[in-house]
């Protein structure tokens, strides 16, 4: 029996609802600062989320909606600088108003640490953003809770490619069967599943209707005592919220 050793968390949409009121707002502020009249409203941003990675998302938007745009400098450089501006606005936004963690996230981090499970992050977003979210939602000490923070451009192919999970497994020297992943999107599920890792999904308004084929469990959120989670697919047994015993059962360990 392979024991569950490591919980690997996606960041955006899974730890916190960062997309609509965080990244999207930061993109729009960056567009205004560099003087382009682009605006990503809530619905358009939902479509653009099909492409992971901020730089990749800007390029996708240009290909689809701004074919006449001629950048003042080479396009790669223009996008990279625009994206740096966006990251500055995103970190500022977190520092000024914060974005809370989703239900059950902090509780699960604490339980995992108490019960000797390792924590890691595998995300498409930029490393500064991971640090800023952990720092502003929990505190700087939380950065030490994660044995691997795999983020952004450390791999060439972003989710739905499995590369970021492969990278994380390699850094941690873990087998996929020793881990469970937590994701909010179909792209994230594909990445985890293709890396051979079982995945629990907590949906949000942008991802609720996506195809989560291959996920072990799909929930509305991780739940808290007194705030039970709802199952969208899979089996929660008698559990009202996600805890380590449930994860061990899902992973295939006999905890009886
Ligand atoms: C979500 C993403 C990211 C963010 C924006 O990543 O696709 O691109 O939307 O962040 P995940 P950047 O769900 O894997 O955490 O602009 O820094 O890419
Ligand atoms: Mg996500």
Automatic annotation (TrEMBL):
Identify the CDD domains for this entry: HAD_CbbY-like (cd07528)
Q: Which InterPro entries match?
A: CbbY-like, HAD-like_sf, HAD-SF_hydro_IA, HAD_sf, PGP-like_dom2
Query: What SUPFAM superfamilies has UniProt attached to this entry?
Result: HAD-like
| Keyword Hydrolase found | yes
Q: Which UniProt keywords apply?
A: Hydrolase
Q: Would I find Nucleotide-binding among this entry's keywords?
A: no
For this UniProt entry, the molecular function terms from Gene Ontology, in alphabetical order, are: hydrolase activity
Read off the NCBIfam families from this record: HAD-SF-IA-v3 (TIGR01509)
This one is known as: HAD-superfamily hydrolase, subfamily IA, variant 3
């Amino acid at each position: 029996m392979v024991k569950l050793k490591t919980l690997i968390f996606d960041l955006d949409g899974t730890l916190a609802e960062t997309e609509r009121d965080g990244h999207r707002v930061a993109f729009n502020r960056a567009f205004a600062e560099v003087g382009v009249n682009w605006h990503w409203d809530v619905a358009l941003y939902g479509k653009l989320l099909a492409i992971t990675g901020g730089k990749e998302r800007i390029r996708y938007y240009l290909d689809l909606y701004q074919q006449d745009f001629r950048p003042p400098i080479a396009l790669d450089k223009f996008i990279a600088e625009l994206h740096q501006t966006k990251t500055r606005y995103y970190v500022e936004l977190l520092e000024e108003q914060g974005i809370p963690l989703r239900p059950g996230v902090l509780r699960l981090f604490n339980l995992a640490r108490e019960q000797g499970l390792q924590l890691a992050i595998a995300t498409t977003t930029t490393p500064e953003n991971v640090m800023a979210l952990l720092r502003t939602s929990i505190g700087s000490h939380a950065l030490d809770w994660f044995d691997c923070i795999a983020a952004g451009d450390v791999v060439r192919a972003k989710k739905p490619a499995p590369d970021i999970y492969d990278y994380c497994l390699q850094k941690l020297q873990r087998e996929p069967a020793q881990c469970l992943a937590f994701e909010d999107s179909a792209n994230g599920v594909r990445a985890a599943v293709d890396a051979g890792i079982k995945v629990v999904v907590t949906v949000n308004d942008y991802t609720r209707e996506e195809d989560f084929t291959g996920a072990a469990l799909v929930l509305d959120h991780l739940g808290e005592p007194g705030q039970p989670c709802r199952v969208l697919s899979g089996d929660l047994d008698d559990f009202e919220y996600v805890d380590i015993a449930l994860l061990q059962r899902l992973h295939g360990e006999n905890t009886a």
